[in-house]
Task: structure prediction
Amino acid sequence: MQTSDGHTCNLHSPARWGLPADVVDDLGARLHRFWQRFRACFATRTRDSSQLAHDYLRAQLTIERGRNFANIERRLSGGDGQRLQHFMSNSPWSGPAIFQQIRREIVATHELDEGGTLLLDECGDEKFGDDSAGVSRQYNGRMGKVDLCRVDTCLIYANLTRRLWTIIDGELFIARQWFSDEYRLRREQTGIPEDRQFATKLALGLRMIERCRASGIRFDIVACDSLYGRDQSFRSTLHAAGVIYAAQIPASTLVSIDEATSARASTAGRREACEVRELARRERTRWRRIVLRYSERGLLSADFAFIRVRIGAEGRQTASTAEAEWLIIRRVNEPRRYSYTLINAATETPPERLAEWSARRYFVERTFQDAKDELGWAEFEARKYRAWEHHLALTAAALWFAAQTKLEWERECWRDIRLALETGAPALPALSTANIRELMRAALPLSPPTLAETALSVVKRLVQRARSIGSRLRAQTGRFDSS
Result:
């Protein structure tokens, strides 16, 4: 394409897309500087093994698959994985300290003063045995069934304005049975802290939100799914703290239409108790078509209904003292389906804002997808609680590194605004975590091992297996017979 001043623009020029050579060349050093800011989190009273944290982050950001302890150490240093396994499973460095540092950096980032959302959700990881910390038969939302799994309760920070997201806190849900006398030995073997007591997912979520608020992170709303939204005590606690929530609820939730429904509401009439799905089907319910945002699939829009309702404990019809809330019904026509969200916003809140708030849980899937598909969150195989804590914290750090890199490059590097005209896009797409990883693999390439290095690695594993065989035989017989 030729510009008005006679110069030819290359559509595929990295510099025009905000990726000048000097910035891209600095990516490996950027990871080093990032690790330096977190380095104190990995030190213990007896040693500083923080270099292993750098190795782990590098592996998450560069290795394609098989990011277990042995493979990471073998690819990065030629080791057999024992040092890294000890660092992750036994070393007493603090995972929560990593989250605290992430939250401090978010607070210090002025571009994130507006547009922030806290997303409370859980992620189930199916298991084939129950000998790992917290594993039990419980509901796995990802699989949609009760099965043997581990459930991570996570708090996510997402910023719609800046198009970034990261995990900022996490708790392992541990079922009540784990705290029985029958499970005492299993708690000791998996290293569950002695001071850990049973807590519901709702209690864990409230703790994480409170830690986030104490850190000073600025956010508009807390968004959560129906596990949390259907609990009136959970919503009341947030409301009392002055927090606006966008909480999904089941279709069977009973509500009564608020007598003081404004003229803007989607239906009118005297108070009546009904399930929210009945409101969605009523002919007199008024719908508004609202465009939520641009996406890479085009304009994202849906039909919305806005109704002021009151809801009581466990969905029962309420007394007049119950707080009125906005019920946002979202309808997607092909195929026809509905979602229901309660928002404790003021009566005069614009419908466009209510609709946009009700749709922010979209970023949960984006965060979990990046963590699992790009950073190896789902490849975790260790059994101990401390290894789980460390793995989640470092996965969150890798997510924040990618998000922060995108944000800082956007601030520091010029993007040619004519690219939108040349490509026909209403807005230029942001860099993805996958894009950052692709650049990282070039910035910090993992050299393939030589044949001699591979042979030595194989021998090390043979020695380890032989010693394990000998150890088990001695334990069984009390002696070792080499004949």
User: Anything to note?
Assistant: The CA atoms of residues 42 and 50 lie 5 Å apart. Residues 248-351 form one domain. The first strand starts at residue 116 and ends at 126. The two ends are 80 Å apart (CA to CA).
